[in-house]
Amino acid sequence: MDVTRSNFKQTIPLILDAIDKSAFLSIDTELTGLQTSKNMSYRVFDSLQQRYSKFKDSASNFQILQYGICTFELQDDKKLLAKPFNFYLFPRSNELLKTDLVFSCQSGSIDFLVNHNFDFNKTFYDGIPFMSQEEYSIKKEFVAQERDDIILNEKDEDFVLPQLTSIENWLQTKENNNWKLEINNAYSRRLLYQEVKKKFNGFVQLEKSMVGGKTFLEAKCLKIEDKSLETIKKDNYLNELDEQFGFSRIIKEIINKKKIVVGHNLLLDICHTYQKFIGQLPNDVGEFKSTLNENFPLILDTKYIAKSKLAAEIESTHLGDLFEITNKLVKDDDLLIKCCDGFNQYSEDSNKFHEAGYDAYCTGSAFAKMMFSLSKKENISMADTLKQNYLLSYSNKFNLMSSIIDSFNVTESESKVFKIKQLAISATKNNVFLLTDFVEPMNHSQIVETIPSEVGKVMFTHSIDSNNAV
Amino acid sequence: MDVTRSNFKQTIPLILDAIDKSAFLSIDTELTGLQTSKNMSYRVFDSLQQRYSKFKDSASNFQILQYGICTFELQDDKKLLAKPFNFYLFPRSNELLKTDLVFSCQSGSIDFLVNHNFDFNKTFYDGIPFMSQEEYSIKKEFVAQERDDIILNEKDEDFVLPQLTSIENWLQTKENNNWKLEINNAYSRRLLYQEVKKKFNGFVQLEKSMVGGKTFLEAKCLKIEDKSLETIKKDNYLNELDEQFGFSRIIKEIINKKKIVVGHNLLLDICHTYQKFIGQLPNDVGEFKSTLNENFPLILDTKYIAKSKLAAEIESTHLGDLFEITNKLVKDDDLLIKCCDGFNQYSEDSNKFHEAGYDAYCTGSAFAKMMFSLSKKENISMADTLKQNYLLSYSNKFNLMSSIIDSFNVTESESKVFKIKQLAISATKNNVFLLTDFVEPMNHSQIVETIPSEVGKVMFTHSIDSNNAV
């Protein structure tokens, strides 16, 4: 189901209900770009912190144009009902809220979307707005100005009370000139704002003015119409703020309901999800892991599971292949996955790859079939398979592309076989690395085994001592 | 006329002919954004260098999605024939050329284009590519590798000649093993590449390999098919390079033909034009002025002309108003401007503002009518009005928005009434400025007159000495 700004509001109940009923849900994103510069391209020897920093840079600069969510409801132990939603997103500017986002596009990524028939007009004309929870809170606080009242001490009262009396007198006599006082101290002004608002129930408003380096407060008596205008303005602001929060409400629901989230090679999608809908990604990878875990306690990466747990059955973990292979591995008779009426009737022949809703559907389907296949041997029901207890050993580990590190483990600290340092021997020899801090002694062939084939030929020219190798 | 990648090639002759025949041409751009951050917003007291740096930042980060060019051909002294072209641009990525541009978008600017019915799909799916002359030259040189040959001295020959003989022997005996030699010196390798290529007419190719820190050259005998494959690859590269140069060819033609270029408030358009189609904008505003002048010797800004030369007749210089007012100021009987058959039949009622071709048309029309109005008093023919001699006093001066500086003058150095320095007195008093280096003594009211009304109230709190004011 395509969801745009035009039908978002009316579709919210359907979306929330689908999330609520789901055993798990899968996600996917379509992005405006991947790498802001050549420095940000992945290197096989990236440390976990380096790789995460590249993801953070990407998620901070590029935009999500389409967000796919597919919910999967367990109907009986042999049947899952899928509801794929395809959200078009765009963070419109808003004058009242002072939002006007600058984001990056990479022409190669735009070309990629063009090759998969992406409708840019739909996203720019009719995309659903969004705003991170963090920004939403700041803006809400800004308008509410819910600062705690200062409790007046004796000295404060000595200053404030005579002024209140003076304003009261002015109100009663209604002289032509407004009540006006020079107050150069900011604290004194704040006291007076606070107490005038309380005493006159908002009908007297103090306005600041500066003349010749001096600061004055001037009292203005609001008419009933003016006062309601103030309230209307505030209501407008809050309404627009809620509207701008938009799609983030859906992500908030997934977090609140502690739903199981599935994705294919999804670390970058998750970084984008965090940055766009929760708040600024932290700089430190350790901090990211813990705060991610608080928000999404159970994330599963189908690429990681396929590679690490079902390598014998699954020769290619490309999403298209994985979807096809898992459909052959587990037949419909054993586990039927069907799209709900009223939703896009995706199937194996749909071939809508890189439409976020379809990719989410394929990912969730492959996940369910892989888990069925894994738990079958242990004779565990599908309902129990999809519970936290069973999933725990597969969860919170992400596949890492082009990396010597086998996975990004959210709940454990970085596994250290050895540390790798790039040696700056000379500008032309930038593929020379120092391996150091070995956990246990390793010989050359053991080291070579840890290095993925894509690195190419590895050569050891020197052994500095028993613990280091170059 | 809309021009996209689909019809660009076949339309080139028509475009070049229109440029060639034109008395002048007008331009306009539609952009993905204006300001990358709040720091880049315009301040009334920006120095010329500061303002230019903001324009450079904008032109370096944002993209042109649509470029309008309208040529105006003088048919007789009372008639101009307009040919408005509306180019959709997009710098596709190209694997062979290794181009993959990252650019910025500002959501407010996207919203602006949405409000004017911009077709994003047309630009992303079918935009004409482009590449700056600078980048084109670098890439062309890269494939040509036209390094001058080294002239061999006696010592060089002593090294090279025995190797050539050795390779010749190997070629004749055709042993199983390839000819191979350890050569660790880069200069020696270059000599051998050069002489082997010459002697064997490209049929023997040397390939470098490194083993255990040693460098080897290995000779490979190319078959006729392989050799032509090399040539085909190079031809492919050059063809793709020319294709990617795309729209830049049109700008190059305008530069080569030294055409008169007209725009409305066009300094930012000109910065984009320079950055995208000529090369990196220089950092220094003075350098920009001189290199801009070399490329475009005669640029005219309709907003500057309207404000500075026809202020009495033209009360609003907004493009829509200017177009309407100039159409009333100079009737069709005096000067008829007509769109050529086969082109969009723009007229006063078209209301296609912010379609680049239409804005260019309106700008050119307003320009012609203003110049008619200005030269009429002097009884000068339209043909003579549109010549360099007459236009010189109006040209190469750009309007500057929200600025104390009245214009950006390309051919003169910055006029200094006084220098303005922002005083960092305190974080809360950031509107305090030091005026210094007065060219001639000015009193308070004279200074106030130089400050545009949009600055708001100006107050002088101290006079430090006769030459400085705060």
TrEMBL record, chains A, B:
<comment type="similarity">
    <text>Belongs to the CAF1 family.</text>
</comment>
<dbReference type="InterPro" id="IPR051181">
    <property type="entry name" value="CAF1_poly(A)_ribonucleases"/>
</dbReference>
<dbReference type="GO" id="GO:1990432">
    <property type="term" value="P:siRNA 3'-end processing"/>
</dbReference>
<dbReference type="InterPro" id="IPR006941">
    <property type="entry name" value="RNase_CAF1"/>
</dbReference>
<dbReference type="GO" id="GO:0000175">
    <property type="term" value="F:3'-5'-RNA exonuclease activity"/>
</dbReference>
<protein>
    <submittedName>
        <fullName>Ribonuclease CAF1 domain-containing protein</fullName>
    </submittedName>
</protein>
<dbReference type="InterPro" id="IPR012337">
    <property type="entry name" value="RNaseH-like_sf"/>
</dbReference>
<dbReference type="GO" id="GO:0005634">
    <property type="term" value="C:nucleus"/>
</dbReference>
<dbReference type="GO" id="GO:0000289">
    <property type="term" value="P:nuclear-transcribed mRNA poly(A) tail shortening"/>
</dbReference>
<dbReference type="GO" id="GO:0003723">
    <property type="term" value="F:RNA binding"/>
</dbReference>
<dbReference type="InterPro" id="IPR036867">
    <property type="entry name" value="R3H_dom_sf"/>
</dbReference>
<dbReference type="InterPro" id="IPR036397">
    <property type="entry name" value="RNaseH_sf"/>
</dbReference>
<dbReference type="GO" id="GO:1990431">
    <property type="term" value="P:priRNA 3'-end processing"/>
</dbReference>
<dbReference type="Pfam" id="PF04857">
    <property type="entry name" value="CAF1"/>
</dbReference>
